[in-house]
Each structure stands twice: as C-alpha cells, then as structure tokens.
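Table S7 (text form). Paired inputs.
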Amino acid sequence: MTKNKARPTASYAFQAGEFILVDANVWLYLQPPAAQPPPRFSLAYSAAFKSLLTAKSKPVIDALVLSEYLNRYIRVEYDVYWRATYPKFKDFRQSKDFATLGTAAIADAGQILKFSTREHSPLHQVNLPEILNETASGRLDFNDGMLVETCRLRGWKLLTNDADMTLGGIDVLTSNPRLLAACPP
C-alpha cells in the first residue's frame, strides 16, 4: 500500500464543495462526552472545522464513523462513571441508568448529523481482499482501511487525528505531529 500524504490542518486551505470525511476521533474532540477532559487537540480541530465550514467544504459522515463515535463516547462515560456499579458493560447498557447517557450521546450525534453530508460505505467497490490481508497481517486496522478506501474511491480527503493512518495513498488532514512526520506531503 502507498503512503498517505498528511497536511497540517492549521495551514490547509479548505475549498468550497470539497468533501472531507471526518474521522470519529475528530468528532470526539468536537462533540466530546462529558467525562472526557478537554483533549489537547480540541482547539486545533475546532479551528479546522470552522475553516472547513467557512470555506463551504462538505464534512462527510458514514455509518462506520458514526458507529465508532457513539461506541467510544458511551465507553468513555461508562469507564469513568459506571464501571464500578456495573462491572459488565452489557448490564449497564440494559440498565435504567443508561437512558440519560444514551440520550446525551444521541443528542451529540444529532449535532454531528446536522453539519454533515451522509454517505454510504462503498463496501461493494473497495479492495476487500487487500484490506482483509492487511488486517490479518497486523499492518492495518480494518475500519481505518475502509475509511481510506472510501476516501480513495470517492476522491475525498480524510480529517483524522489517528497517528496510524499512514497507508492508502490518500490526502490526510491532521493536527497530529506524529502523523505529519510519518506522511510528508
């Protein structure tokens, strides 16, 4: 697989009509769960998202990203506030205590959906054997492979903070210095 090209969000000039797939980790900086302390990248991604919207670029979301966002959001809250009460996550998820958290998570996801263009995953078009082989070898996370392939097939850029997002031959926008160092433009 070819290396991605990473560009810093601070200096990237977003373009009108440009599609940007926003990764779940960035959404967690923009719409964090209450238990998550303000992460150090929040300001950088808030500024990038403001620039993206001002330029009239199009933030994109798909089911995979939304699923990762909601699952991580709920796990952060569970780990901080509920693990001692409910040692088994599934017991918590099925409890009456979950309702408030579930409502908050869905409300924050609703905000994401307001700003985003919803797109389907092109599972039928991706090079699934390659993604599966790279996943089996440990060189690639399956979800990352799907996101990269989606961007590659559709000509989108990926806005991510994932330092492992190095393979696939796409343009990646990030504030993560490790990713910028690993994938020069």
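Next pair, protein 2 of 2.
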Amino acid sequence: MAIALNKNNRAGFTMIELMLTIMILGGLMAMLLPAINSALKKAKKGTAKTTMMTIKNGIMQYQAELGKYPPKLKDLLVRPKTGDEKVTKKWDGPYGFGEGTEDVPEDPWGEKFVYKLNPAGSGSKHPYELYSYGPDGKGSPKEEHIDVWD
C-alpha cells in the first residue's frame, strides 16, 4: 500500500505556534523577574553584613592587642607608619583579613564601608559606627543603611 505524500506538507511549526510559545515564555519571565531581583537584593545585603562582621572581628582583635580602636579601617591591614609608637610596635596584623589583603573590601554596591569612632561620653551605645549606605548609596535615608550592630 502506497501512501501519497503531498509536497506542500512540511515538518515544523507555524508562525502562530511560535508566537504563542514566545508569549508564554515572556509571561513566565515577567512573573519570575521580580522574584529573582528580590533574591539578588537579599543576597547582596547578606554579603554586606558578612563582610562587616569580618571587619568587626578585625576591629575587636586590633582593640584587644593594642588597647584602642583603629583610627581608620586601613589600619587593620597595614601597620601605621606614624602616630602612637606603642601601636606601631605592637601591631601584628592584618586583623580580620588574610595575609596579602591590600585594601578593605567594598560593599556589594562598590562603595566603601563607613567607619567612625564615637567620642567617649557621646551617649552612643557602641564605641564606633560601621555601616553600608545600602543599594541606593550615599543619598539613602538612615533607615536603609545596613549597620553592623543590627
């Protein structure tokens, strides 16, 4: 028994089938994109917190060994060349970071972490402030800052 083949019948998809598939995939992507974006933001905030905890541990090591808090974060990595001679002799860093680390890491948004010593008697609960401005950078309101103490 012979089957007649029509030369006009071709295997493949019609334009309507392709357009429908593209529309379905586009709709799925539109629904997934906000969830992916939210997860990415959450991951970056977690990374900022983890990095600040490493810095905080380094500050605690520095304070335990030298009896005072570092004036700037760079002092955790590099022996101060000037200033208190007791500090320059006792310094045994880097503190909080491995050997070969040359600079304090930035937050996940490419900005430097903010570190400020609080003067004695300032009424602050903590001896220093350490935070990131967060995803919106320097202009962001204080509520959006990611603080090491929270």
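Residues 15-66 form the longest helix (52 residues).
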